[in-house]
Amino acid sequence: MAPAVSSPSLPEASASILLVEDDAAVREVVLAFLVAAGFAVTAVADAASARARVERDSFDLAIVDVNLPDASGFALAPQLRARRDCAIIHLTSLGSTDYRLRGLESADDYLVKPVDMRELVARVKAVLRRTARAADAAAARLPPAAARLPVIELGRWTLDLVRRELADPAGTVVRLTRAEFDLFAALVQAGGLPLARDYLLEVVASADSESNARTIDVMVSRIRRKLAAAAAVPASGAPRILTRQGEGYCYAAPEA
User: What is the pTM of this model?
Assistant: First the structure.
């Protein structure tokens, strides 16, 4: 596994970027330009290092080469997004229309090498602006009474809205997909009020473009199974999702 190279500490307001590029020369040039533009950058050379990084750290955006030595960047991108909900830009030498279209299925932008570093920085800023607006729009759809705390205690469980993590009493993170986390967080923030399937469809729309009413039911079922499995390990009650006939779903605190 290639060693990771981190940039010096930068202002807290700067976005955090994961750069996944196996070509050392390209990696160093891109790293230098992004740091000069004010971003906090972590650079790695392969998919394994990228996966290890997202297990420990959160990132706002990942720049991912397609031809990595141990995996395809096309396969890596959705894995990174599912784990940390970060935006993705592919930076690659593969410039055909077919590759571009395939890349944009899992990424927010696609750039072909060689690329002007000024354009790369501009594209990074544009993607970050788009994702920030999407996050603001999702927050605006929450019910007025929804809690706005960054970390919400659910009995002995914790829901971290900043890191987008649900942790059991032992501190183990429950693996939720991007859409599952959005749905569960919306239910928690509704404070026990039932949310209709149509509303929940809007909540997960950006994370699951194929969602429909049946998808919401399946997603709730998956979340329930994951909560039950996690609760069995520390032998404590798990947060619950209850069905309200004719109204939708609502959050319920763990049973004592």
Answer: 0.53
